[in-house]
Amino acid sequence: MSQSTASSTPRQRVRDLLPTVHLGRYPTGPKNSLTDVPGVLVSTQSIHSSPAYPNAPENSINTGITTILPRKDWFHKACFAGIFRFNGSGEMTGSHWIEETGLLHSPIVITGSFGVGAAYNGIYEYAIREYSDAQGKVDWFLTPVVAETFDGFMHDVTKFAVTPQHVVQGIDSASSEPVKEGNTGGGTGMLAHWFKGGTGSSSRIVKGEEEKSYTVAALVQANYGAMRDFRIAGAPIGRLIFEEQERIGHENPEDPRLMAQAELLFKHIREHKDKKDGSIIVILATDAPLHPTQLQRLAKRATVGLSRAGGWGANPSGDIFLALSTAAEVEVQNDSDRWTPKERSIDMTEDATINALFEAGADAVEEAILNAVFMAESMHGFNASVDALDLDRVKELMAKYFGGLCLLQNNGFQGRESRAGPQEWGSSSSRTKARDPERVGVGADSSPLYRWSTVRPSALDRDWGAPPVDSISSYSRIVYAAAARRLDC
């Protein structure tokens, strides 16, 4: 049923596969990755075996860790940070301290749900190795930050394959290289929208005053969502594939291969995801000088990027977002007198000028999710084999969907916008029913698309009469025109 395993297109990021798709108005960083933020370091480790389980069945261990260092000297120099909990069926250790102080002075490790304890210990083991005194003792304060999503469909969670040593190695090997994506790091065993999911990243550059510019970047561990909700640049690609899969299954009831794939998709994966709809962890980093409250606000904007891709915060989903700024270096682990208040000065962004950073953050999260799904490969896992998103089919569906919209756009449906919102497309005296529409294309669901040669009514005019039966409503025409602008038409 699913044809992704037969795709002739190699795994590639969304901008490489669909170079004309519009994913925001801000340019990406040179790597289009979290590591575009100066000083941020990342490593990913996939784990497919464990000496503790030499007799584990083949393909039963599929987990890993992603390690993020907000800066090289994270131990002594804290970053400002903020957290937003979109839905709380998950864990991010250390979040209470971040909410209390607005300070992050720990690596961020993202892993599977059953690896949290080992990852937590691993951060401590690294700190003890590096920062204990001559007698091997410690007198410092550290609360490790470890986040998780559940990889129990692809990974046998009874095999505790993540060890503290993996985290120590991850901290040691973290680099400024582009983040590896797809089936890597903590995302190794994750699913997203019933496709193979995993790790993804993206970045944006925002101009500041004079010659300054700032980077806003995202890293996600995507393990959430239903196929029917998955969208690419506004196109309902998941729903189209879902309906296509259903139709193929109904038309071929005697094909054992198709029936087996249908049972996997519509029974096993659906039941697994409905019971616990995965989760998503989002890390946003920037070098813009934001204080903790502003970073909480930035973290909230991850919700916008998630919703564009098809996430809406299901009850059993752990959707936890952390935003950090590397601009300020706040000394911790020092010998300051705890009873004598000490002044510190910091730079900060004026609240009234923060919009571009919010928008760029939302855009980066959306693209990071798409990159996670686009780069993930089909996997033979503990419970079943799960296909990657079929990139060949994506290209076909996107061309069909946006092809109709572009044709519609270029045949007269030019929306106009102002600061006050969409303007009226016709005077009150001209608001009469349109002439019979001319068919100009086919929508993604095979329904016809039309244009009118005369009146273009306002989307806001509630008194406008119903359009012809086979036509697009005035509101939909604005929506189609706006969607068409997500592709270069």
UniProtKB/TrEMBL annotation:
Superkingdom field: Eukaryota
InterPro entries found in the cross-reference section: ArgJ-like_dom_sf (IPR016117), Peptidase_S58_DmpA (IPR005321)
Region (Disordered): 416-443
GO molecular function, one term: aminopeptidase activity
Pfam family, one: Peptidase_S58
Family: Belongs to the peptidase S58 family.
Protein name per Swiss-Prot or TrEMBL: Uncharacterized protein
Organism: Pseudopithomyces chartarum
Lineage: Eukaryota, Fungi, Dikarya, Ascomycota, Pezizomycotina
